[in-house]
């Protein structure tokens, strides 16, 4: 009621352009205050913050309440297990944007002592849960049986002021029945990477989970970071991460494999009802439509990854969201030099999850989803499900072409344009051109249709590429297509500058921030988050740190480990 009234009020404000920002009359009514610029009512005191009453409680809960590792939990979607707090937690960084727009709190609440206690599982707002999710998955091509949240706790759900439903999860919050041999902790290194990258992906417009805050402890755990027999002590951290849903393909697979068909039906219905509002639960084809939408969303997200040079690194079915979100940031990476066969996982010697295999792996994962849905789909409908799956690759290709056409301002996006894209990528591969900066500098240089383009020395990536013997011919073709499209060159540049980032989370950039944070200096993590909020905008601090320069030599030898 209050909320509706507030929305109404905002509309009135727009209509009559009344500045309500400074007014506090409504504070007493709603226990809220109006944020000066965002016009969102933000919560001022964290002790007032609470979850909504969660519908997740309707899903089957494991009756075993003792928390010990069990390889064969049955007939449950969640186990209830307490969070194991870390000692002497320190707030390392927060995402102001996630705080405002998802939690709807004023960023200053992070100074309330119960905010850190919240991230540490000690302060439990009203309607809190602590659930570990049971799921399974295909890992590296084979069925891995029960996996589950081995170091994560679902805390609850809450609808943000824009009407989106968010599930809150702690990662690194201790052992659960699904920890297998793990200790339930996440180290500082991998937590910072997840924190920064999920926010960066959000600002790059990629469907993704978010991160609101990260805390770090002086507690350490042993990790053999490079699996080379040299384990070391590393600090542990907890990340508060957020997603509209954390359910994965593996969430359904385990139920289908275990013949828990009622649970399977209940979970899919729950997901459809909460996240696929356009599907009618009474529709007899609802599971087929659901599959179609998951296929579509997955194709789109992977095409987005490819368009910004992102490789996920572990595309197992348990790391693939049913909403097509990017989740579980592990050994991910962004391409420096364009090499389509590159993989961020240094132990992946088969290159199974290489950059250019992600679409293939996506279709494999969707095939596994289809298998999980089979018990609910009548026999005569199977051909249409097969057709949907066969449609994945064409759909992916369509998204891919559309996104790459935008990167080059080829707004008609016809066959000829695809040819231009492919030729550019081939040249880039041949020259190992920097992926991000080649596209960016194509958007930044002065374009002229009738003259040879003049590449300044500062456009280092493009300068390098221009030594390719087909570069001049390629630019002529590209210019010709731009001219035919009827765009003027300024418009073309604007389109390109909106989709070709100047700053991405390169490994060397996170590495420096991780080393500083490990020494207790969190300023770099915070600065990077700030920079990546506007990846398309030239920023002095980023230039000073050379984030748009050629990666330093030491970046080349940098290995990203999977141990986390
Ligand atoms: C497919 O996904 C795209 C991108 O998320 C979305 O815009 C579109 O509405 C989806 N189409 C269907 C039929 O779900
Ligand atoms: C993917 O899921 C597996 C199984 O739960 C987990 O061990 C792994 O850490 C996840 N990958 C990432 C990158 O988080
Ligand atoms: C990296 O690849 C290897 C080999 O395929 C695999 O065993 C390992 O689990 C992968 N790492 C992660 C984090 O998935």
Automatic annotation (TrEMBL):
Keywords (A to Z) from UniProt: ATP-binding, Magnesium, Metal-binding, Nucleotide-binding, Nucleotidyltransferase, Signal, Transferase
Leader sequence residues: 1-17
One Pfam short name: SelO
Cofactor(s) of this protein: Mg(2+)
GO molecular function term, any single one: ATP binding
InterPro entries: SelO (IPR003846)
Similarity-based family: Belongs to the SELO family.
Record-linked NCBIfam families: PRK00029.1
HAMAP family in alphabetical order: SelO (MF_00692)
Identification of the protein by name: Selenoprotein O
Organism for this UniProt entry: Dimorphilus gyrociliatus
């Amino acid at each position: 009621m209050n909320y509706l009234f507030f929305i109404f009020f905002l509309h009135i404000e727009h209509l009559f352009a009344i500045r309500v920002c400074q007014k506090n009359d409504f504070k007493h009514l709603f226990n809220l205050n109006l944020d000066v610029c965002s016009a969102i009512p933000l919560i001022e005191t964290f002790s007032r913050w609470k979850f909504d009453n969660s519908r997740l409680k309707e899903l089957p809960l494991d009756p075993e309440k003792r928390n010990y590792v069990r390889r064969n939990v049955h007939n449950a979607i969640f186990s209830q297990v307490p969070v194991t707090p870390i000692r002497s937690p320190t707030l390392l960084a927060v995402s102001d944007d996630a705080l405002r727009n998802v939690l709807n709190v004023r960023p200053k609440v992070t100074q309330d002592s119960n905010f850190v206690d919240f991230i540490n599982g000690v302060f439990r707002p009203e309607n809190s849960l602590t659930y570990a999710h049971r799921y399974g998955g295909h890992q590296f091509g084979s069925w891995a049986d029960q996996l589950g949240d081995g170091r994560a706790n679902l805390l609850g759900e809450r609808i943000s002021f824009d009407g989106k439903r968010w599930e809150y999860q702690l990662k690194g919050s201790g052992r659960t029945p699904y920890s297998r041999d793990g200790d339930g902790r996440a180290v500082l290194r991998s937590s910072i990477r997840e924190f920064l990258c999920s926010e960066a992906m959000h600002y790059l417009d990629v469907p993704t989970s978010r991160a609101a805050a990260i805390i770090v402890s002086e507690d350490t755990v042993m990790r053999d970071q490079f699996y080379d027999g040299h384990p070391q002590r590393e600090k542990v951290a907890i990340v508060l991460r957020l997603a509209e849903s954390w359910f994965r393909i593996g969430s359904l697979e385990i139920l289908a494999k275990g013949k828990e068909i009622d649970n399977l039906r209940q979970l899919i219905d729950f997901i459809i009802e909460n996240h696929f509002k356009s599907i009618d639960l009474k529709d007899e084809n609802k599971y087929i439509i659901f599959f179609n939408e998951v296929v579509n969303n997955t194709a789109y997200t992977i095409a987005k990854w490819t368009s910004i040079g992102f490789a996920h690194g572990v595309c197992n079915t348990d790391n693939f969201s049913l909403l097509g979100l990017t989740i579980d940031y592990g050994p991910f990476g962004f391409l420096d030099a364009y090499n389509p066969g590159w993989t961020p996982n240094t132990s992946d010697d088969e290159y199974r999850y290489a950059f250019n295999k992600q679409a293939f792996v996506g279709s494999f994962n969707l095939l596994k989803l289809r298998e999980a849905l089979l018990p609910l789909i009548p026999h005569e409908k199977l051909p249409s499900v097969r057709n949907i799956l066969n449609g994945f690759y064409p759909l992916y290709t369509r998204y891919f072409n559309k996104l790459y056409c935008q990167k080059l301002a080829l707004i008609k996006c016809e066959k000829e344009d695809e040819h231009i894209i492919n030729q550019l990528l081939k040249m880039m591969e041949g020259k190992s051109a920097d992926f991000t900066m080649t596209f960016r500098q194509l958007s930044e240089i002065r374009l002229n249709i009738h003259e040879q383009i003049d590449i300044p020395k500062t456009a280092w990536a493009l300068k390098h590429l221009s030594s390719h013997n087909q570069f001049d011919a390629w630019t002529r073709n590209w210019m010709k297509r731009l001219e035919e499209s009827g765009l003027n060159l300024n418009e073309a540049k604007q389109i390109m500058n909106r989709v070709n980032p100047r700053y991405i989370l390169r490994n060397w950039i996170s590495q420096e921030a991780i080393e500083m944070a490990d020494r207790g200096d969190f300023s770099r993590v915070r600065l990077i988050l700030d920079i990546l909020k506007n990846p398309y905008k030239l920023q002095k601090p980023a230039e000073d740190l050379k984030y748009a320069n050629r990666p330093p030599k030491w970046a080349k030898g940098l290995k990203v480990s999977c141990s986390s």
